[in-house]
Write a structure and sequence with these properties.
Order of helices and strands: HHHEHHEHH
Radius of gyration: 19 Å
Oligomer: single chain
Structural class: mainly alpha
Distance between the termini: 10 Å
Strand content: 5-15%
Low-confidence stretches: 158-167
CATH superfamily of one domain: Nicotinate-nucleotide-dimethylbenzimidazole phosphoribosyltransferase (CobT), large domain
CATH class of one domain: Alpha Beta
Helix content: 40-55%
Strand order of the largest sheet: 1-2
Largest sheet: 2 strands, parallel
Length: 167
């Protein structure tokens, strides 16, 4: 496991290379030249600037798109806050696997790879209204599942940041 402790995770986050602020500035400058009201694309404009920062290029692009969905059950459902019981999660995961969910169609239309990872569906997190939802070990295991699910070549050229930050 790359992160044995929360300190290991924090250290890896602090060790990430700085992005390219000039690339983000170029994206924002270009946005100002387009024939549209300023800010009319809402948060999409911020996402593109963020992507430019991490790809280190003023015209970011998505060459290979992966959609990662992690499914789990929440202990807070015991409080009646969810319209669905926990067993529906497994049914939803099965629906994803058979291509029957909206995310399947979005991925297909985007030419994206979709991966659905069930996270211990038989064991929901604790009810966070009563106790912490996860122990440190459970949290780190969930982080590890996410970390392991990302293909090393998923982001180009930004994947170099991930490779350099591995402990």
């Amino acid at each position: 496991m790359p992160f044995a402790t929360l300190d290991d995770l924090a250290a890896a986050c602090r060790a990430l290379p700085a992005g390219d602020a000039d690339a983000a500035a170029a994206v924002r400058e270009r946005q100002g030249l387009l024939t549209k009201p300023p800010g009319s694309l809402g948060e999409l404009e911020d996402v593109v600037a963020w992507l430019a920062t991490w790809q280190r290029r003023p015209m970011p692009r998505l060459e290979r798109v992966e959609i990662l969905v992690f499914a789990g059950n929440h202990g807070i459902t015991a409080q009646g806050v969810s319209p669905y019981p926990p067993d529906v999660t497994a049914q939803m995961v099965a629906n994803f696997a058979h291509g029957g969910a909206a995310i399947n169609q979005l991925a297909k239309n985007a030419g994206a790879t979709l991966t659905v990872t069930p996270l211990d569906l038989d064991k929901p997190t604790a009810d966070f209204s009563l106790v912490p939802a996860m122990t440190e070990a459970e949290f780190l295991a969930a982080i590890e599942a996410g970390y392991a699910a990302v293909s090393p070549d998923a982001a180009t050229p930004a994947n170099s940041a991930r490779q350099r930050s591995q402990p």
